[in-house]
Specification:
With about 170 residues, this protein is an alpha/beta fold. The chain contains six helices and six strands; from the N terminus they run βαβααβαβαβαβ.
Amino acid sequence: DFLANLPSGMSHISLAINLSSMAFQDESLLPAIKEKLELTWVDAKRITFEITETAAVDNFEQTRDMIMKIRALGCKFALDDFGAGFCSFNYLKSFPVDYVKIDGQFIRNLINDDTDQVLVKSMAEIARKLGKKTIAEFVETPETISKLKEIGIDFGQGYVFGKPEPTLLPNN
């Protein structure tokens, strides 16, 4: 409803929604998403669902299946906190996600840590080869933005762009 209620001049705005591993086990999730899309007439491409890497691997097959079904509706998908889990690259290859959100532990000290720079660059190259866009979390300085651009990261998220603000959404 949030996107549907925006003025027409703001049709470029999109929304990211975090999903827990429990949400993927709820059989009403897919019908609820379908219903909301039909009722609001919002372009599904404006909605990106996010699941953390660790939550995604809890129930790998069921999660992968649900991601494919939600993407078939036209929505996008992001694998959040990438790099924080074990065997990350195997999951990146297996999950049909659109974005890879690189965990903030690799970004916080990026400017001063050569190892983090090598790791983030590797993540960006692998994601690009797999046809996925990258989002760096915890971007807090203009210097970090410059380094991320140099490394080849597509997008950033963090306080340098703006602090999170509460949004009042209706319950239905």
